[in-house]
Amino acid sequence: MQARVHKDYPKGSSSGPSTTPPLTNPTNKRTRVAAYDSVMDVDKPLMVMK
Questions:
Q1: For residues 23-49, b (16+ Cβ closer than 10 Å) or e, as one string?
Q2: Higher pLDDT, 47 or 18
Q3: How far is it, in rounded angstroms, from Cα 26 to Cα 14?
Q4: Which of 1-10, 20-29, 32-41 ranks highest by mean pLDDT?
Q5: Residue 30 CA: distances (Å) to CA of 4, 24, 27
Q6: How many domains does one find in the chain?
Q7: What residues contact residue 13 under an 8 Å CB cut-off, 6+ apart?
Q8: Which residues touch 5 (CB under 8 Å, ≥6 apart)?
Q9: 35: domain range?
């Protein structure tokens, strides 16, 4: 199913991927850090948010 979705976005992805890779790299690192923090403090963040 994912392969079909990628083929559906060939035109829009053509211009997107060019500018997405550079922006995704820094964002990926930040997202991973946030995910790690959430996993480590899963009980605390969940209780604090609720």
A1: eeeeeeeeeeeeeeeeeeeeeeeeeee
A2: 47
A3: 21
A4: 32-41
A5: 29, 10, 5
A6: 1
A7: 6
A8: none
A9: 2-49
